[in-house]
Fold these 2 entries.
Entry 1:
Amino acid sequence: MNTPTKITVARIIMTPIMLFMYMADFIPFGLGKLFALILLIAGVLSDFLDGYLARKNNQVTDLGKFLDPIADKLLATTAIVLLITGANPVIPTIAGIIFMFINLQRDYVITGFRQIGQLKGIIIAADRWGKNKQIALYITLGAGMLLAYLRTFAFATIEFVHIYTIVLYALIGITCLLMIISEVGYIVNNPTVLRSTKKDDKATDEDEKRD
């Protein structure tokens, strides 16, 4: 296992620890949520670091390709769940469910799209919109966890929390918009992936004959 893959595995291990620390209300002064925020930031930085090292040192492996998207989705999905659950969630339940739905369906669609492309020998690389979406998502999740931490302090006045919450909602809206643009862009820019070929038609006919 090379260094980039070890970093990816570390990100996977960090995620349940982040989950525990965020929910550990017994830790005084809101330090549990602060530690969770620090772990999220570490996970985000590791996401950029492992890819950079893999490309720079020519250490791209099949194991790394398999684990990296799992680590990314696990980290982001866990953070979203934490922000939309609890007695007083950072993101209101309805808005949070919509946020998670857009994120998950985008990931499922793109994953399926890439799998079909691979079967046809078409490699679909991440585009600019996908990268912008990922950066916006990480910023939004970090801002949400920071708000959760600030709520534990008396000096965080109601007015300050209100203004910060509005900013967070704006970030969520921008992130959701980038998710949709990225998803549509993948499909529009790679029309041949969903286009039926003679080879596909022949394979379908053979399958029907077997049935």
Note: The CA atoms of residues 19 and 78 lie 7 Å apart.
Entry 2:
Amino acid sequence: MRIAVTYDNGMIFQHFGHTEQFKFYDIQDGKVVSEQVINTNGSGHGALAGFLLVNGVNTLICGGIGGGAQMALAQAGIKLYAGNSGSADVAVMTLLSGTLAQNSNPTCDHHHDHEAEHSCGEHGCGNGSCH
């Protein structure tokens, strides 16, 4: 099994479509046997699902993620654990222990009253925790 986490300086990066790095964890017998940080080389949004598939990823842990990316991951057969934050390593250990929570609405395409405070570029998610 191979788990990928959107990655920025040890933490789960909060916007899947803009992530510049993933940390990959290879798992055997429920334990991490190797880890590596991989640059996306400018791949963004829709291309990231293909990037993960080519790199043998089975499971993704991330923060915010749009509906289109969720569909692309589902079509690629990649299990998604979205809406997470904090340490990437801790999230993987929590997943392996069977207690990683799944956010039922991790999308980055919703709007809030504080939209003027934050924008996610072209799709203006309006969620301050998106990045």
Note: Strands lie at 2-8, 11-12, 21-28, 31-39, 59-61, 79-81.
